[in-house]
Design brief:
Layout lengths: L1 H13 L20 H6 L18 E8 L2 E3 L5 E10 L5 E5 L6 E6 L4 E4 L11 E5 L4 E9 L7 E9 L2 E13 L1
Parallel strand pairs: 2-10
Antiparallel strand pairs: 1-3, 3-8, 4-7, 5-6, 5-9, 9-10
């Protein structure tokens, strides 16, 4: 009985590549996770997008909109929280020529821009560099007006960094009366 258990454990250890990811390239390959990591953390989505700009490698964006279903009779501002996390093993510097770090667009389902975050904010020529260390993140909590939204339609909130157009994320939400 113990021989069977030992043989089974040895087979599992030697066959680690069976449980790994395929080696075929994809359009946005993420971080390769081993089979043990997948077993211990099955719902961990730590997928790092692959950017063309090598300076951005290892960065991952997350977008949270509050409230997810917007009641236009109660909500005048939509809360937008953007998190830029460095999942790599090296620090990533980001250079900005102005004090604007992010841009937020509210769009209808056809892709037409209804509102821009920068229209209501003053932008000054103030160069700065942000250094994101490994396993750290930067959060931006902003609000954008919902006055252009109409009830019973799906809208899209798009957030991007104007200096780094590859750092872009979208999320859909519903507006109700």
């Amino acid at each position: 009985m113990t021989r069977r258990i030992i043989l089974l454990l040895l087979l599992l250890l030697m066959a680690g590549n069976i449980f790994g990811q395929d080696s075929a390239p994809t359009s946005t390959p993420g971080r390769r996770r081993g089979w043990l990591s997948r077993i211990l953390h099955p719902f961990s989505p730590e997928v790092v997008p692959h950017y063309k700009d090598p300076r951005l490698r290892g960065l991952a964006l997350d977008l949270q909109i509050t409230p997810q279903t917007v009641k236009l009779s109660e909500v005048r501002q939509l809360g937008v929280k953007v998190t830029l996390a460095n999942l790599s093993k090296r620090p990533v510097p980001l250079d900005f020529p102005t004090n604007q770090r992010i841009e937020i667009y509210l769009m209808d389902s056809a892709g037409d821009v209804l509102a821009k975050w920068s229209d209501n904010h003053a932008i000054a020529e103030k160069p700065a560099t942000i250094l994101i260390n490994p396993q750290e993140r930067v959060e931006y909590n902003e609000t954008i007006a919902t006055r252009e939204l109409t009830p019973n339609k799906v809208f899209i909130a798009e957030v991007f960094f104007p200096q780094y157009p590859e750092l872009r994320i979208r999320q859909k939400f519903l507006a109700v009366p």
